[in-house]
Amino acid sequence: MQAQLIALDWGTTSLRAYKLAADGVVLEQRALSSGIMQLPKTPRIIHGRECADGFELAFDQACGDWLDAQPDLPVIACGMVGSAQGWREAAYCETPADVANLGKSLQTVISLRGATVHIVPGVIQRSRLPNVMRGEETQVLGVLQQLPAEAGADLLIGLPGSHSKWVEVVDGCITHFDTFMTGEVFAVLSEHSILGRTQQPSSTFEAQAFDRGVQVALSADGELGVLSTVFSARTLGLTGELSPSLQADYLSGLMIGHELAALAAVQRQRRNNPNLPSIVLIGNGQLCARYSRALDACGFARVTLAEQATERGLWQLARAAGLIDSSSR
Amino acid sequence: MQAQLIALDWGTTSLRAYKLAADGVVLEQRALSSGIMQLPKTPRIIHGRECADGFELAFDQACGDWLDAQPDLPVIACGMVGSAQGWREAAYCETPADVANLGKSLQTVISLRGATVHIVPGVIQRSRLPNVMRGEETQVLGVLQQLPAEAGADLLIGLPGSHSKWVEVVDGCITHFDTFMTGEVFAVLSEHSILGRTQQPSSTFEAQAFDRGVQVALSADGELGVLSTVFSARTLGLTGELSPSLQADYLSGLMIGHELAALAAVQRQRRNNPNLPSIVLIGNGQLCARYSRALDACGFARVTLAEQATERGLWQLARAAGLIDSSSR
User: Fold this and answer.
1) How far apart are CA B209 and CA B207, in angstroms?
2) What InterPro entries has UniProt attached to this entry (chains A, B) (predicted)?
């Protein structure tokens, strides 16, 4: 099959490249560690010229050979590559945002070899406490494309990560989303707070310790909030009730439990409905497995995992932007 | 006046020494940075012997000359000096704990010069999520001594800090307490997370930004919990609604607001009373000022600040232990 699009998922710490054929079929894919915060630094000859620019070097590593073979392949990229610290800033689109208005708002940068890279803007929600995403909007669109149109109203799309996002959609539009810094707060507590000092790494996922943490968040003890309950990762260690190798997964369950308990309460209130929405999770498999366990414990009964969300979203956006033949689905 | 007691408040990062006369009158006091995690390292001659032990060196710096002048002065110490990482571990006393049972549980260590140092144990509450304190129990006893006996039932004693404590007392006994890691979580987020990257230091306390943070925690937006609302310290910056020099105090208000909102809800529930208890705050003046503002916003109407809590508590404990003449108050 003939390639039709190069699609890049270019975040803070990683860069994934996809060569896509008609209908978004993946012909080839690559994962590099050249995220925008860890770009290559060694100068190299690109397209006959000495180059020291990290974005150019990473771009050439990711797909230079694909472009050598097919110089006219359109290129689209999403993620932090479009942030103020990225290759070219793509101003946020406001909610409600869908594939049509995101697709016509692509920012461009012309690479050293002459290829135009189309950068997907992030989405901003100008609520009292504003919210932003970059990259997740593309994944959400990739999921929506695979769902029946009527699925939206009872659906919440979850993107666990350093900053997890929970996205509400109506008729193919991103209408509202919330961010939780659970992943990053867990990491800084484990690396830099007193809680990390007694943690010992475990070679396996300690499911019982994780579930115990979730249950504490949901219990009456959880009402004091996460700033209080996290101290129990230390005190249960002091009393011999939680061994060092279980403390990290206990803390993880506790924090994810607090996130999801609050999410469930707010979702019930916003929807004025005691029933919780269906969930589609997008992201790293191990992290999604943790969230699935915790979602189940929090009463979210219907949870499914999305696949290939990013490449499908990039394909949809490239179509909407007219970068590829619109007769291709 | 003749000195009757040397009292040490020996924590993780500081060591305060008090020379006390009858009735606990402070004759002299000193503040050193020789907390148990930053003990002096340079060997020195103490009492005619070369010494390299950090605890001995710090102890000698703090009160060696007082003991030279009056070798028989009793010495009492509270705080992390009695932890597993301290000079000598003093096993926790269980709640309920009062001046009598803490006073008869002092651990001792004999210093190089022959002085017996009496170390106050911390307190442990063996609830489902256990809780521990070291040093705060002494401050609480110091406050209780100054209050009329009937004040207890409607009182909550707050000790803001890296790990703030909220202590319930009944008839002079510490019966229950909760810990919030607010101070340490604020510090690690400011130093190590994305939120710190856009913070700029302010030379003054930004009261409006702090109050705004408190209000967000108390608002409907606060219902998503602190793991979500902290992200607004970044997004309000991105939208130009919160300048970099205001972000730290906004975040501080937001986190203290979440702590106190949860505390208020749980206190109302535990006491089965819509009226909140009176508060006595113990600790660093600037931090207590922040907590006072936030307590007021959270509906705690009666807040007072305690003074000299530590030295008064140590005096009471020394009396209860028989270290000083019990005819002295």
Assistant:
1) 6
2) DGOK (IPR007729), DGOK_C (IPR042257), DGOK_N (IPR042258)
